[in-house]
Amino acid sequence: MTIFYEKQGNIGIFTIDNGKVNAITFDMHAQMYSHLNNFLNDDEIKVGILKGSEGKCFSAGDDLNEGDDYPDWRGHH
């Protein structure tokens, strides 16, 4: 379960890959935060695309199995 980030020319592509419905876990939020920092600090990137992994839905949203205790991961990457 992860969020991948790749560059193709001037395009940054974020791909959500976690099971059938691409639910987003706490760890994946931290990955996205790190990837977004890289994306925003790269002057060569002109546009970003966020997509679900091949053959799956875009994303069902947060993984409800992780509960409501959201960790404070900001600044801890």
Question: What can you tell me about this protein's structure?
Answer:
This protein has one domain (2-62): GMP Synthetase, Chain A, domain 3 (2-Layer Sandwich). The model has no long low-confidence stretch (mean pLDDT 87). The chain has one helix and three strands; from the N terminus they run ββαβ. Strands 1-2-3 form a three-stranded mixed sheet, covered by helices on one side. It is an alpha+beta fold and 77 residues long. The chain is flat and about 40 Å long. It has one helix at 26-40; strands at residues 2-8, 11-17, 47-52. Helix content is 19%, strand content 26%.
In DSSP terms (H or I, runs of 4 or more residues), the helix count works out at 1
Structural class, from helix and strand content?
Answer: alpha+beta
Beta strands, count = 3
Q: How many independent structural domains?
A: 1
Strand content: 25-35%
Q: Specify Rg, calculated over alpha carbons.
A: 13 Å
Helix content: 10-25%
- CATH architectural type: 2-Layer Sandwich
CATH topology (level 3) name: GMP Synthetase, Chain A, domain 3
Largest sheet: 3 strands, mixed
Shape: flat
Strand order of the largest sheet: 1-2-3
Could you tell me the mean pLDDT? Answer: 87
Amino- and carboxy-terminal Cα gap: 17 Å
Name of the level-1 CATH class: Alpha Beta
Order of helices and strands: EEHE
Q: Segments where pLDDT lies below 50 for 5+ residues? A: none
Quick overview of this protein structure:
This protein has one helix at 26-40, and strands spanning 2-8, 11-17, 47-52.
